[in-house]
Fold this protein.
Amino acid sequence: DVYSSPCRGMLLDAETFLHELSRLFGDSRESGSVNITFKQLTGANLVRAFKGKPEAASADPHDVRCIIHAKGPHARLSTIIGARDVVRFQISIAALFKTNMINLKKKERKPKAPKKKAE
């Protein structure tokens, strides 16, 4: 299931999202960054998220879902997962983070010049 939206990027299933996220990490390896956000979807937010596919948005008010956005240097990705799949998804995404942590480097700081005192 791949839905495209001009303003939000691509809405993917969870497995495709993880695969594309690993490619996004690879694209930003030399320069750039990847921002990931998790947001709970309930009620009206859930209906808006499935604007093009009303059958995908359930009418059950107790159905809670989570939307995950990833924004990289050249792409925007999104996926929506159910409440019972959140833990399994977070374990998968944590493994993906661990494999891509090799790119983190400490920021090189320049020594500060001593301040001159006013006379």
The first helix runs from residue 14 to 27. The two ends are 70 Å apart (CA to CA).
